[in-house]
Structure formats: C-alpha cells, structure tokens
C-alpha cells in the first residue's frame, strides 16, 4: 500500500482490565454492596432485531494495579499486555430483550436483580464464598408490565432484599425477595398507578422509609411504602403518598416531563431534573417529629400551612442553567464546617452544573461542554466529598474537584483525571453507566461499544 493512502489509527486505553464478552451494547452496571470486586453488567446480546438481553458477573479483584507512570505515557489498544482480560463467572440468561437495569439487594447483596425491555424482573441468588468464589442460582421471575425503566434497592435494614421498579406504563412496583423460597421468591409489597406517563426514575430515601418517583408527565410522588407517614397522619387523601406534585401546579410545571431524581443524604430534600433543562427542589417531610402535619395534596397545595416544615412538599428552588434535558443528578454532603451540601446536574447539552444547597442553591461551578459537547450520561459524587465523577457519550470518564467555583471548560482547574478506552465520539461507544464503590479507587464502566473497562485512580 502506498504510504500516502495509509491511515494511522491512534487508540488510547487507560484501563487496567477489560471485559469484552458482550457482542452488543452494555447499558447498565452494578456492584455488590459487600464484596465490591463483584460486578454485573447487562445489555443486548447481539445485532439481530430479536436479540435477547444478556448479562454477566465478573470479578475485578484479579486486575493488577499498574505502576505510576509519567504523564507522557499513553497505553496501546485493548490488547495491550498491561491490560488484563476478565473472565465471566456467570451468565444472566432468560431475558427476551435488552437488560437495562441491574441491582444487588441491600444490605448484604443476597440477590441480584435484572430487568429490562421485556418487562421481566429476574432474581438471582448470589452466595459469595471466598476464597472459592460465587455461587449463582436462579430464584424466579415476575412480569407485571411490558417494559421496566429502572430498578432501585431499598436500603432499610428492617426491610431487607426489597426493590422498587418503574415501568413504561407509569406504574411503580415494590417487591420483597425471599432467597429461601424459590417457589415464591418475588412477593409484591405495593403497586401504584398515579403517574400518567412512563415512570422515568426513582429513588429511596436513605433510611428506606419513603420512595420517590417521577414521570414523563411531569409528576413527582413520594410513596409511604411502609406506612410510617400514615402513622403520623402525614399522607395525602389517597392514603399512598406523602408528597404529590404535578404539572397542574404551575410552580412545578416542567416542559417535557421529568427524567432524573436524587435525594439528599440527610433525607431533607429531593431534586428532580426535567426535559427543558430545569431542576425543581422539593422538601421532604421529617418523619418522627412529635407534631403531625398533613402533606401536600395533588397539584402541590398544602393541607395545612405552606410554612409547616414537617409536612414536606414545599418547592425550595426552581433552577435553570441548562438548555436541554437534565438526565442525571447527584448530591453530596461534603465534610466541612459547617457542612456543604452540593447538587450536581448533568445534561444532554453536554454541561455539568454544581449548585450549593447551603447557599440557596446558588451556582458553584458550571462545566461547559465538558464531554466534547456530547450528552452527559451520569454524574456521581464520591460520598461525603467534593469529588465528582462523570461519563458521557464521548466515551470518556472524568473526575472533578468542584471546590473551585466559576464557569469553566475541561482545560480549567478542577479536572483531576480523565480515563479513555471506549470508542466514543458519537460512534456507538459512549459510556452508558459506571460504578465506583465507596472510595472511587476503581471505576467500572458499561460501554455502548459492548466493552466494560476497569479504571484505577492513582
């Protein structure tokens, strides 16, 4: 071949390990809550129109750490001998469409839940037996809906092995899984049908008492799953919710619906992100206060006084700093004196905004087009820190120190590290999800290019 016709392809792979068994896109990744080296990924199994969903469990502990290298070092392609190939410990089979949600139950990770576009919710008992390995046993499945959008594990220690899910038809379901009874493993605890559009996101409060969900119709409901609020007379007239806000209340109306949610680690407020780039911040009730109060009714009207701090449902802030949908939110309580509460938002417009909740949600940092103008897919704080990790459709994972304030781009102060290895650049190789444990030492991705990469912070 004439040298003038040659095209040099330069690849950069910063990972210490990779998992490349999938034949198509990965959409979700989950990490065991006790044994953090155990990771599950899920997505589509192949290119065929009727390709089933597929998932795998693998162990990242076998990936050796790399020595600290000079900044000028650039590794080679995925086949670089310094990058370890990870093997599958177990294959998650039986879905007839893509797996879009994975989670291990809390607090011990006894059961792995997979769910997806086929509406199936499958439970897998996971017995970790170090140093032997892991034994995975199919427990059973349920299918009450046509398509599952998300799954979240309940953190309440008094209600172990409980999950919630939101469906395309707008319904919300809560299941408790009994690992000892394969004949009736998934037991319905509650089901809710107030959303008028697809239920797009959901989150439990950190004490596991309440479940908050949002919908494409612009509604936010906080469900009293276990009856703690009802015992204090705090539920709405419907007897199911403690906060009910919809687009009927013009103060809460968000054009294009709601697509993301995050709850303050102290369970004092909820932030929800909308299709028009706006964010609404809503107070949560204080369960356990001596004086009971009625919560907000449908449309956001409070049954007692709008100044009642125990009721919840007050709109604390309406934020607008993005021009497109806010797809991801994360909240951290940084260890300062006094405490600093940070709210980070990632948008389809390619930007990330960090708000200071302790200063009336003023903008602390605005990162403009930080993923090369591609959509930001996920932002997540390392718990109780100023450190924020993000991923985007450019195929890059980045880590930020958000203590510095102002409007910046990727060349400005605050960027701690970036990891490359996925194809990206809009070529079907964006990072769709990641996990980073409690310390952020290792980041594991789910890539649209069908690869999961393990990055290490040095």
TrEMBL record:
Q: Which InterPro entries did the record assign?
A: WD40/YVTN_repeat-like_dom_sf, WD40_repeat_CS, WD40_repeat_dom_sf, WD40_rpt, WD_repeat_multifunction
Question: What name has this protein been given in UniProt?
Answer: Predicted protein
Listed A to Z, the keywords are: Repeat, WD repeat
> What are the start and end residues of every segment in region (Disordered)?
292-313
Protein transport among keywords: no
Record field: compositional bias (Low complexity): 292-307
WD repeats: from-to residues: 92-125, 192-225, 376-410
| PROSITE patterns the record matches | WD_REPEATS_1 (PS00678), WD_REPEATS_2 (PS50082), WD_REPEATS_REGION (PS50294)
| Pfam families xrefs | WD40
> Among its keywords, does the record have DNA damage?
no
